Amino acid sequence: MKYEVITTEGRAKRAVMETVHGTIQTPVFMNVGTVAAIKGAVSAEDLENIGTQVELSNTYHLHVRPGDEIIKKMGGLHKFMSWNKPILTDSGGFQVFSLAGLRRIKEEGVTFQSHIDGRKIFMGPEESMQIQSNLGSTIAMAFDECPPALADRSYVQPSVDRTTRWLERCRKEMDRLNSLEDTINKEQLLFGINQGAIFPDIRIEHAKRITEMDLPGYAVGGLAVGESHEEMYHILDEVVPYLPQNKPVYLMGVGTPANILEAVDRGVDFFDCVYPTRNGRHAHLYTNKGKINLMNAKYETDDRPIEEGCQCPACRRFSRAYIRHLLKAKEMLGMRLCVLHNLYFYNHLMKEIRDAIEGGVFAMYKKHKLEALAGDNGE
Amino acid sequence: MKYEVITTEGRAKRAVMETVHGTIQTPVFMNVGTVAAIKGAVSAEDLENIGTQVELSNTYHLHVRPGDEIIKKMGGLHKFMSWNKPILTDSGGFQVFSLAGLRRIKEEGVTFQSHIDGRKIFMGPEESMQIQSNLGSTIAMAFDECPPALADRSYVQPSVDRTTRWLERCRKEMDRLNSLEDTINKEQLLFGINQGAIFPDIRIEHAKRITEMDLPGYAVGGLAVGESHEEMYHILDEVVPYLPQNKPVYLMGVGTPANILEAVDRGVDFFDCVYPTRNGRHAHLYTNKGKINLMNAKYETDDRPIEEGCQCPACRRFSRAYIRHLLKAKEMLGMRLCVLHNLYFYNHLMKEIRDAIEGGVFAMYKKHKLEALAGDNGE
């Protein structure tokens, strides 16, 4: 793995990361395909067609269905879903703490109930690494606890300390797994995750400790889970300077286009979020003049594309009126076209951001873009 | 419109039909897109990629949503759904008689309740032609009554007589509409429909009467609605010889691959059926060795495509194991890939049939194909 910062503007970084599954141009938005499929009938082939660089899959979901052993048997996640570019897998931790049923946290890990069939599952750092190794993703995320954004210091500090100890165990286990003969991706990369809720001192202290471990990349986790945007930006202002400048920084689960612009401005270069897919499935569409709700009656005979000039598979061919009709008639094609548009919008936004940083005009670009995105689409 | 029989083998016809929206090579399978969309998130672009020649939309469904006036305002169905090849619309009759709520048949037409909002709608021959003219389809179907397959003679005879009178009114109204200035497709073609349930004499008498009207094409309706396959083949044996040889013959709503082979052998050259889409959505997949149910546990780690050598978008890239996983996880992508495979299978079957007739080997091809299709896919 090689990560090289090509240029910077302020704290914004324009970088290139080489992986065993190909090159990633950053800042990058990773398209979320929870169970090895993008919700909205979007395939790996579609992702290629809308400029996706990195696909993100969820370890917890794939562990419970179809099972990571099955995927390993099928040659790993890349082969299974027919995607030959980089894949990042999360650790399963977030889902264990947010989605699973009754759970018990101990030093060893977490015991919880599957949301599919209620069966008891244990997951600790070693299990998370083993599952992600079975999946063979390009980048594996450390197993951490993501404490609630508004948790007390008295809860957060011991949680973060445990997350640090878990990170040591993750690294050790990943080193072991990467050295095994039958491992799918022997160059799997481990990213550490910074936690600490909205306490800058805990965040900074943690950032220093995990930076010492010299991992290939670092994420800021536990944001966009209840705190305000301003609190999130403040935490980034405080903590990103303590993460290595010459390594990728990933802001997990973020966010709106405005969030991304602000975070890039604070040195972040990896993003992921379900907004484009989830909003697309609900007819909420991103445009460069603000969001539109395609279910609105005023689009009934609107023969324009979702956004004039957009080169996505929906806008190149279909009208607002047609897509609205499909959504009203509950035809899956409507959701598919909306999701394709929104993902294209996000991927294209990242390209604009990269170009702006390269051209040394990111500050101006960001200002104008934020104004445009806050618009009402000329309506 | 020009229809030319290139070659025949027995009663099987290999023909070419020129329309204002392009050429149709027959025998042809029309892909059903009820509300101007193929169920399973399949777009007009996808149809092009799987070799679809004709799309079929349902007049009744489009009349109630989004409304044919809306579609006319959008420039017609071709522009609305972005499909520039031939489209056939049914008359709405079948849905009125099978899908709508309480209904009353009179000489003028049928009063019924919308299945969407229960409002009262009247549809007769003129209304059906007006709606189909608003849609601007390539081929419009006559408004008929499709009596139940097992109805009494005493019901069927007067029903068929009324259908004949309705056909006269359809023709007159279509001639009028095609001459209007703002009509979308002034060369819209009207196909008559033969009815008569399973009474050969009523069918033949009706075929003679509608053939005298010298319409651009004829359909055999009211089959595959309850009678046995043998009865259906028998009716075709009896009635097709009384339809003009130099015009296209369309067997409505049929059927399985075996049904199609048998009907081609009896002189039919147009088909449509919801089987490939409906079966695809339920994981029932066509192969040249028989159907498979992809939900079966034995496919859990099967890394072969649905069918070896198939050039459909699903088989070119994805494994049975992956598609099965998607279906189990209720990911829309699973349904989409299955529908694409099944439609490709049907379109490809028709190509094989055309090639076989052209090569003068249809009888042999049919025999071997029927044997293969009845297989258990080697399992």
Features of this protein?
homodimer; 2 domains; 17% strand; TIM Barrel; 14 helices; eight-stranded parallel barrel; globular; 379 residues; three-stranded antiparallel sheet; alpha/beta
Name of the CATH class of the largest domain in chain A: Alpha Beta
CATH topology of the largest domain in chain A: TIM Barrel
The count of domains of chain A is 2
Task: Give the largest chain-chain interface (CB within 8 Å).
Answer: A-B, 40 and 40 residues
Order of helices and strands of chain A: EEEEHEHHHEHEEEHEHEHEHEHEHEEHHH
Give the overall average pLDDT of chain A: 95
The secondary-structure class of chain A comes to alpha/beta
Low-confidence stretches of chain A: none
| Rounded radius of gyration of chain A (Å) | 20 Å
Provide the β-strand percentage band of chain A.
15-25%
Distance between the ends of chain A: 47 Å
Strand line-up in the sheet with most strands of chain A:
4-5-6-10-11-12-13-14
Q: How many strand units of chain A? A: 16
Q: Sheet bearing the most strands of chain A, described?
A: 8 strands, parallel, barrel
Q: Give the proportion of residues in helices of chain A.
A: 40-55%
CATH architecture descriptor name of the largest domain in chain A: Alpha-Beta Barrel
